[in-house]
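Q: What does the assembly look like in three dimensions?
Context provided by user:
Components: two
Sequences:
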Amino acid sequence: MKKELKIPLIKNGTVIDHITAGNAVKVLHILGIPISTSSVISVAINVKSKFGKKDIVKVENREIDPQEVDKIALIAPKATINIIRNYNVAKKHKVELPNEIIGIVCCSNPTCVSNANEPVKSRFNVIEKDPPKIKCYYCEREPEDIADRII
Amino acid sequence: MKFNGKDIISIKDFTKNEINYILDYAEDMIPYAKGDKFKNILKGKVLSSLFFEPSTRTRLSFESSMNRLGGRVIGFSDPSGTSQKKGESLSDTIRMADSYSDAIVVRHPHEGAARLAAEFSDVPVLNAGDGAGRHPTQCLLDLFTIREEKKKIKNKKIVLLGDLKYGRTVHSLAYALALYGAKLTLVSPTSLKMPNEVVGECKDLGIEPISTSNLEKAIRDADVLYVTRIQKERFPDAEEYNRVVGSYKVNNELLKSAKEDLIIMHPLPRVTEIDPEVDKTHHALYFKQAFNGLPVRMALLSLVIGGRI
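A: Here is the predicted structure of the complete assembly.
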């Protein structure tokens, strides 16, 4: 039986595959989409795959940069990023959290010095990569609601 | 072991060997702390003492330590007389102190403030308490006291009682005691339980703390009872404070079931959690514990600024 694509192929842009099921909308939020783009966005939620369910996001005419990839890894640690050029996969990489997250997540502790009026960016050490667990470099608090804390 | 120029921010920045080294050196400092001996090893050196929050013991013992070793102290104990009142940031205040002194002691209401201060300072920064966060020098003097009294820390049964949620001293202490292999029992009102992060750190070190609300049972075979105050200033709302204040009290009646050689410690100030009648018993060690802040802080200042007795 011929396999049918749920969402169409894109000519140029980025396909974010293997997003943890249910997190596609958060990924869009992290990427600032659709506010920051006029591209066509396709979203598939709860798509069947050999590892269970996953979400897929296709963004036409936009190639995602590494800084944004780091952000995605915080809520979709198994995601893969495919850069599409002329219908072909030009680059493919699996997201991976760096050991340190700087300026991406704000600390959940209201009295953390990183939330005060000081000239520093928020800074977290990554304790576990999958599922992501991070600890504030300044106050050592471990935020549980990482997705809601993305700056 | 090299400590010259090192920041003292969190007890977790130190290995057990380094902690032992500091405690051994603090022991050598005792006659100098008592004024029986005197050496000008920090002559010509200046300490900035920046207290953005109230303090009695920590500030006075740091300042006394510097004076006892022949150094001088500049600073403030009330930020209302400084440019912070005009909106100056902590980082700018630290830059100034860095250019005026050889070391900085800072207490600040924001967690992580000392870590931030160290980023903006070339001279060593010593954390004198950052909000509900860390208080490494208190932790070191607590370890020093237990070691002095009990000769060792490993396998000693230590009960931590009180506000284990907001009490910064117990967070650092629980970690350090686990590092030394002590047996920990945690007693607190339900809403003031030890944060999971701290319990997790103890478990990572191979120590599984026991949590209970039965204080009488907990102290029966305890070697150390470490009591903390419920800190009104840390509560987000007064109602939560009123619900728990006065929920535990250590008095002579309670101590009837304790071991003869139980020692009672408290970082002070105490309010109502230890009845003054306990002060007269041989269990009460909190005033000696407060004195121990002096040799420990003298040792630290000597190590990070330079100059040995």
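Follow-up: Residues 286-305 of chain B form the longest helix (20 residues).
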